TrEMBL record:
Its EC number is 3.6.1.55. Residues 8-139 form the Nudix hydrolase domain. This is 8-oxo-dGTP diphosphatase. The keyword Secreted does not apply. CDD domains: NUDIX_MutT_NudA_like. The keyword Hydrolase applies. Belongs to the Nudix hydrolase family. It comes from Novosphingobium umbonatum. Gene3D superfamilies: Nucleoside Triphosphate Pyrophosphohydrolase (3.90.79.10). One of its GO terms (biological process) is DNA replication. Its cofactor is Mg(2+). It is an enzyme of class 3 (hydrolase). It catalyses: 8-oxo-GTP + H2O = 8-oxo-GMP + diphosphate + H(+); 8-oxo-dGTP + H2O = 8-oxo-dGMP + diphosphate + H(+). Pfam families: NUDIX (PF00293).
């Protein structure tokens, strides 16, 4: 990828933790941040020198205190804004799914978390890119 293109993209990873009943863990963004109060898949920005899987494992440890082996992450799909305002960076979110992890998810940053049926995600108030990610998760599970 050309340097210019890299500067215009902001890579973000997200993880669908799936429990034995097939429910998925969602967390609520803190009020005061962009998309505050909306429900999202846990995750965050990929840092320099990380693979997407390493970033996902780091973010899930930071946010929920769980251990994730990079090989336990299945690629589900991605979402990106179809049209960008001039000069804005394109957020590209890569969604992984995991059925196995170490520890019990506990909010580490004071955020609310809850388990939802995968088919129920579309009814949640979410940031825009989490809707196509939720649809990709429904399709991936079939
Ligand atoms: N999940 C999600 N994130 C989005 C969407 N659109 C969008 O710009 N983002 C941005 O993607 C980034 C996700 O990274 P993050 O979770 O580490 O960001 P953050 O604001 O919680 O943490 P920060 O304090 O490190 O910036 C945020 O800047 C978030 O605002 C979207 O539709 N869904």
């Amino acid at each position: 990828m050309a340097d210019g293109a890299a500067q215009m993209m902001l890579p973000v990873v997200a993880v669908a933790l799936l429990d034995e009943q097939g429910r998925v863990l969602m967390q609520q963004r803190p009020l005061g941040k962009q998309h505050g109060g909306l429900w999202e898949f846990p995750g965050g920005k990929v840092e320099a020198g990380e693979s997407p899987q390493q970033a996902a494992a780091r973010e899930l440890a930071e946010e929920l205190g769980v251990g994730l082996a990079p090989c336990a992450l299945d690629a589900v799909g991605f979402a990106a804004e179809p049209v960008l305002a001039k000069g804005r960076r394109s957020v590209v979110i890569l969604l992984f799914a995991a059925r196995h992890w170490q520890g019990t998810p506990q909010p580490q940053e004071g955020q609310n978390m809850a388990w939802y049926g995968v088919e129920d995600l579309a009814a949640l108030a979410m940031p825009p890119l989490d809707y196509p990610l939720a649809r990709a998760l429904v399709a991936w599970r079939r």
